[in-house]
Amino acid sequence: MAAFSVPPVEVLLSKRVQEMVLHGEEPLGPYICRSGKDVGENEDIMSTSPVPIIDLNRLCSSKISDKEREEELEKLRSALSSWGCFQGIGHGISASFLDKIRQVSKEFFKQPIEEKNKYAKTVIDFKVMELTLFRNTVSPLIGLIVSSSMCSLKIEDSIISGHKCQYHSDWAFQLHKLISEYFAYSFNVDSIIERPEKMKMVTEITSKAMAKSLNLEENCFLEQFGKQAQLAARFNYYSPCQRPDLVLGLKPHADGTGYTIILQDDVGLQVLKDGKWYPKDPTALLVLMGDQMEIMSNGIFNSPVHRVLSNLKKDRVSVAMFYTPEVGKEIGPEDGLVNGDKAKIYKRVKDYAETHWKFYQRGMRALHTAHV
Fold it and tell me: Which residues form the Fe2OG dioxygenase domain (predicted)?
């Protein structure tokens, strides 16, 4: 790929991706992350998705037999060891509510540029974040970031951070109310719990099931995440792209989270396994392991590389929920996974997400920094 000069941050922020698409402009150099030669016959892309399917209901319901539950736990362990992800069903979140989330996401990004710019990052915001990202490649997506404390509502091009809410219109206030409902509702799965007063979150069910699949005490991973574990949602918008042979919606990377739960409206995300790219079924929730879960499982679970393709004709949205250990909490391999048969692969680390971010900006993984 030919070298290019990176425009100043002020230039890059002067025109958002959607504006470039509306005016039929060619992508800027920093957005180009493919040579065009790795597309088609030279790139191994599978048309169907064999990503394992896990029924979360079978992992927690008292109405199924112990044998059925053990079978599902074994499927979970196999999925996370080989794929590092699974497609979750039986999560108790209604299809109509997930459709509503997709719809309101699209409606937000269809607002006039002037309206969205009221929540956009400023040049100062970017410079404070030490924008080394532009020394490599940037992703042509726009994201709405919301934290679990309900205190962030910002539009940005590929940087995640928190900001206090500033409502510039009644429309934005209504959107924020819906997103608040999403946090409260989408991770509370009372429909798959026999007693509604004991509502559990998808993250709790998943974390406990992962521990049990490894014959560990069920709360061990939850304890590593901590009582103040971070939960943040990113509402992503992918514009149509005139050059999908040159531009990816999101470049190949692994997450620095504990794990991520992803909702899509159409095919676009791909997971890399054994040198091949596999699509995800857009109708299921994708639960994807991050580097910190690989560390906590002492390398048994895999943090997979994944990417998002651009599309010539369609725009798309997705919602990624990032579940990360609380700030300042040290994590490391569970003691029960370190023995004579399995040596300790990773050391204990603190605030790994920050380390991951620094390497991500340079197009690199950070897991080696946690190796023993």
Answer: 228-325
Residue with tokens 């890399």: 272
Consecutive H or E run containing 141 = strand 141-147
d(CA 216, CA 50): 28
Helices (H) then strands (E): counts for the chain: 12, 14
Distance CA 70, CA 212 (A): 9
Cα 215–Cα 218–Cα 220 angle in degrees, nearest 5:
100
Give dist(CA 161, CA 152) in Å, integer.
8
- pLDDT tens digit sequence for 124-172: 444 433 332 222 333 444 455 554 433 333 333 322 333 334 444 555 5
Report the candidate in 155, 145, 153, 144 with the shortest Cα–Cα distance to residue 121: 155
Q: Is the dihedral of CA 92, 95, 97, 98 positive or negative?
A: positive
Angle (CA) 270 275 278, round 5°:
25
Query: How do the residues of the chain divide into helix, strand and coil, expressed in percent and rounded to 5?
Result: 35, 20, 45
d(Cα 319, Cα 20) in Å, to the nearest integer?
A: 23
